[in-house]
């Protein structure tokens, strides 16, 4: 599995970093990013919650 954020869609709501902080962070401008080394989702069940929580469906979590 691979988690990614479409930066063209992200509006910087910060929900992903709040929901699954082990996998997501916010950059200096508040936009979401996947923490380096966490692209596989780290087996964190909250990643799927973060996908649902994103208000603009910018997060993809899918088979590579
Ligand atoms: S929840 Fe979605 S819109 Fe908000 S920071 Fe994360 S990727 Fe961006």
TrEMBL record:
Span of domain 4Fe-4S ferredoxin-type: 1-29
InterPro entries assigned: 3Fe4S_ferredoxin (IPR001080), 4Fe4S_Fe-S-bd (IPR017896), Fe-S_cluster_ET (IPR051269)
Function statement: Ferredoxins are iron-sulfur proteins that transfer electrons in a wide variety of metabolic reactions.
Domain of life, per lineage: Bacteria
Record's keyword annotation contains Iron: yes
Phylogenetic placement of the source organism: Bacteria, Bacillati, Actinomycetota, Actinomycetes, Kitasatosporales
Gene3D superfamilies named in the record: 3.30.70.20
Xref: Pfam families: Fer4_15
Protein name: Ferredoxin
Cofactors named for this entry: [3Fe-4S] cluster
UniProt cross-references to SUPFAM superfamilies, sorted A to Z: 4Fe-4S ferredoxins
Keyword terms of this UniProt record: 3Fe-4S, Electron transport, Iron, Iron-sulfur, Metal-binding, Transport
One GO MF term attached to the UniProt entry: electron transfer activity
């Amino acid at each position: 599995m691979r988690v990614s954020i479409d930066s063209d869609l992200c509006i910087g709501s910060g929900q992903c970093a709040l929901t699954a902080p082990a996998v997501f962070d916010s950059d200096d401008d508040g936009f979401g990013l996947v923490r380096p080394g966490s692209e596989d989702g780290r087996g964190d069940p909250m990643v799927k919650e973060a996908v649902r929580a994103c208000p603009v469906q910018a997060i993809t979590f899918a088979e590579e």
